[in-house]
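User: Show me sequence and structure for the first protein, then do the same for the second.

Assistant: Starting with the first protein.
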Amino acid sequence: MQCITRMAQGSLLLLAGGIGACTDVPVPTTPDAIGPPSSASRGIGQLGTQGHGQRRFEARFGAASRDLPGFGGYEFDDAGNMHVFLMDTAHAQRARGYLASHEARWRRSAHRQGGTERRIIIHQAQFEIAQLHQWHELLTDNVLSMRGAVFTDLDERRNRIAIGLLPATYDATKAAVQRELDALAVPRAAVTFTGDVTLAMDSCDGTEVICDPKLPSPDPGTEAPADSVAEPTPDPSYAEAAASYSMQYDDPSVDYFSEPDPSFSETVAAECTTLSSRCRPVLAGTRIQYAVRQPNTGTIAYPDCTLGFPARLSNWRRTFVTASHCSGYAGITQGTGYYQPVVAANGYIGAEYSDPAFNMMQWDPAFGTNLRAKYSDALAAVWASVTYSFGRIARPYGYGTFGTGSQGQKGINPANPTFRIVAELGYPNGGEYLDKVAHSTGWTYGQVDATCQNVRFNIRPTPEHPSDFVIFACQDFVAAYVFGGDSGGPVFFYVGNNVHLAGILTGVRRQSTRVTGFSFSAMSNLEADLGPLQTF
């Protein structure tokens, strides 16, 4: 029996052994394919109640909701203090004792969050977190069916449900949402609205309706000398083959199942000087590229993304994970070929193998089709005959300023070229600090300022799926610098040379043209879609 999933203490994957445990999975004797998630017709509210969304709520707040009267949730501040909401603050002493003994995550070392003396601070709540959760699950389907909706969120930092709306239709959509609240008997006082946030997949590929040209150029920040090295460019003569969406993942020269893996290597080549360089072995956090034929013009484009991390699937396939929208079409496995660092004959590293389909939601009369949702913007691609570094992430010289102020360094430190993954963080808590490494903006970090949002993204319609948007359920957000091409990059909790893998970067959040952070799909979400992943 082989232990597939390893998790950090207190993190989520509710497998057979419980939180923090791993599941014994037999090593298969044949390479079975990963099947798509169930396509049974059900809404996000039903998916949340019956599946991963409910498990994640239960892991974070379930026990405290049952054991503490009037418990309204908690979040962390910049110093690592836990802020707890209670309907009746007379229970403050009981809550402090309970959370200090049961919530190990709040005591976890956070080197950037000040000293070791961290407090539990009590605040007056207006709503119990369990009741907010029920209301949120009840209204999400209908709200995200509205044209002007952007996201819904159980906002534990404010003891409310938060709903994001497009600025252009803010008033009309808000009125429609309030009518829905009244019909569902959800108090209007339990809901807050914002109209100044937009979300976008950050890769200008064939998935998006429009590649947004309005994002500012990356702030150069503080760069190491290696950052000035000229970046490779794609080879146009290889374009037709690369854009065929029929790359082969069953390479007879590759032994996919032997143990140990002959392709593993921890020796980083001298040519791997930046996150955009050719790196063999291939490193997580470095530039990857694919080719896509633009639907309107027929021309071939070369979108940039970032390799998230190598992983073994439950059928023992050796793969790497990146963003689902970094492919010919999100949610459809087409065999998209991937190259590192650019599309060229000597750059091929693997092909799309499992891009889980969107689950069908409720019937949408406006489109005459089903709405679609899944938990992660992620796919798995099988390796070609190349060496790669398993359980490692490229390590630049240094990180950028906290938050969205500037990009980080992109030059890889030859004296200490990688982070080692030693654990997985199943889901984040509000207020925690997380880092990411991605080829466009390097190593940046910031604070988790929204958790488990259901977000709506526009996509390109197809004859099979005429609806022009999809929903990614239960996504998390970090207020850190990001730019196009960072999609798919690894997100992690930084503890020096070692890291706890938290997920992959999926999109840009902005106010007007100002970047305010990135979205990411947490490890628990990735495994809800892709199945158990071995990452170290």
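Switching to the second protein now.
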Amino acid sequence: MLLLSTTSVGREEPVKASRVEQVRTILPEFDRLAEATLKKTGVPGLAVAIVCDDQVLHLKGFGIRQVDGSEPVDADTVFQLASVSKPITSTILASQVGKQGLNWDDRVIDLDPAFRLFDPLATRELTLRDLLCHRSGLPDHAGDLLEDLGYGRTEVLHRLRFLKQANPFRARYAYTNFGYTEGAVATAKTAGVEWEELADTVLFKPLGMSSSSFRHKDYVSAKNRAHLHVRAGERWEARHDRQPDAQAPAGGACSTARDMAQWVRLQLGSGTFEGKTLIAPGALAETHRPQIVSRQASDPAKDHAGFYGLGWNVEYDETGKVRLSHSGAVDQGAATVVMLWPADRLGIVVLSNGSPIGVPESLGASFYNLVSVGKVEKDWLAFFQPYFATLAGPPRSSSTIPVDPALKRPHLAQASYLGTYQNAYYGPLEVVAQNDGLQLRLGPTRRAYPMRHLDGDAFVYQPVGEMAGGPSRVDFRLGPGQKATQVVLEDLDVHGQERLHANPPNLENQRGADCPSRRASWLHPSARPLSCFKSQFMIPGQRSWPRRSRNRGRWSG
């Protein structure tokens, strides 16, 4: 899911030895570096695959599968791939391009007629290419919070239509797992099968990738699998099980170093594997071509811009040589990377079972240094760690601002806050009394989230899931008779992009409204039609809106 630039990794120098011989020569030094990196960081384990000139030159595991255990990681240990799933998915789509007339520029609505975006123009013109290079206009990471709430793939994709687009269509890059997932789902529908079956049939089985899957149950059932780990102080702990089936094409694949090596061979072989053309070279090459600028150069006089292809980060070094890459990051405990240098027919995959701190990326960059110039030119782990530390930092939340006990205001009677609030994008939100306190209930299973009082009509709850950070503030807005008419959830109000309506079911037939209201709002079914307002939930009888407050998700009851 990450866009990291290492375009300065190693300047090519003329050498007499073949590239294969160069790689073999540096492998002992690379292994020492991998072992030292595990020791320095404490990451429990990792596995590496290195391919050059259609030969698998290195398959090796380091460390252990689970802390407090003794089972070693090896070339057949199954890891969750996170967003390294994306270039695998684009490989599968490339296999279908040209078959039955499928094209990268086919309209999604022709492949999956039920799919809709908020903007009718985008709905009508959206193509597979748009989804796979993240230029649909959807907000960054659109749909991920719905997944955290427990919604499945079909429901998340359906609810994207209620999310106002953050960017002009095709004008800007914004990374969206569920937009990417829709591209895969639409393609599978043209083949008349589920996505997971299509992946098995056209990629995993032909390549002999017997331990690879887009099904989480296959990862869980693998006897030789790497557990997820997060850092807790000075140690690593296996706390989580990340279930990514909802966004499997974008972040839910699992595989081994041995299997991934076969896929790298296919990529570097331009769609040919063991002498047989499995994917049309032109269709696969299109995934490697820049489609949109994903990272602007901070200083255009000195720096390179970054580009995104179809499931690949595409970058060029000082000599013009292309490097294809993609990182995968699961905050709940996995970090992965694939890096390819097609001109050298060279590639590396690094899979790890610790949350992202830059380990796979630093090893990939160091590997290319060793191959191209014979030494590691900088401490790449130190280079990447600040970036990942910033990503992993606690989210800003007004719930963490201390309240002076002398100034703290009491809350009203519980009855003032109770009720069911409606929101087209997130679904109903219930506030119920439980054990002398209040609970939020959200998502398809109405998961309970206890709240504690903060100040006045403000409370705090703890979100859960891959996107969750620390505690989030909950604000109630009062109407006549000191009855709450609106509730604002800070963590869910991140895009500011949703229409509010009195009767959410009627949204199915409403498209392209100009309302710039925000997405984290719930409305009571009997409320009157609402004016534009950011993410909120409405209570029946509300007549006016309170002032907007910055970065607050709102439900109305």
